[in-house]
Amino acid sequence: MTQFSINTLDLPQLSAQIHRHAIGFDRLFDELGRTWANSSKAENYPPYNIIKVDENNWAIQVAVAGFGEDELDIEHKDNVLYIKGERKVKDEQEYIHRGISARTFTRTFTLNENVEVKGATVINGILAISLEHIVPEEQKPKKIAITFAK
């Protein structure tokens, strides 16, 4: 059994290899490159989960303990989901230990062009965002009639 690992991913090289067999995926590789570059700069706050609910539905869960209703903002623009948290009230308390962070953050997720944000709720300090892949009618499979000529 051969075992291998990929330490680095060379997207331009991978893109060149796939372009020999696939046509029209330029935009996909451009988006992957941008996402890959942005993720290398991203920090780990706040922690999050991505859950596949079923074939066309996902949920993003973000830990937002300590943030109030008016301190969270979600925006879906140009296939990017922006989740922002900004503390508006300065905490005047003197902490001996502060393990629950409440710093300002912006977390971004790149979404496919056919993914829609269906809703968002906060339960027990977890922001849950529901996503659904909507397949447009023109992209659904269709049967092609075959005509036999005599």
CATH architecture identity of the largest domain: Sandwich
Shape: elongated
Please give the alpha-carbon distance between the first and last residues. 56 Å
| Content of β-strand | 25-35%
Oligomer: single chain
Structural class: alpha+beta
Mean pLDDT: 83
* SS element count, helices: 2
CATH class assignment of the largest domain: Mainly Beta
Low-confidence stretches: none
The CATH topology of the largest domain, please?
A: Immunoglobulin-like
The spatial strand order of the largest sheet comes to 1-2-7-6
What's the main sheet like?
Answer: 4 strands, antiparallel
Structural description of this entry:
A hairpin with a 2-residue loop joins strand 6 (115-123) and strand 7 (126-133). The protein has helices at residues 11-19, 26-41; strands at 48-54, 57-63, 72-77, 80-85, 105-110, 115-123, 126-133. The chain folds into 2 domains: 9-41; 45-137, Immunoglobulin-like, CATH 2.60.40. The chain is built from 2 helices and 7 strands, in the order ααβββββββ. By secondary structure, it is α+β, with helices and mostly antiparallel strands. 17% of the residues lie in helices and 33% in strands. A 4-stranded antiparallel beta sheet has the order 1-2-7-6, with no helix packed on it. It has a 3-stranded antiparallel beta sheet with strand order 3-4-5, with no helix packed on it. The mean pLDDT is 83.
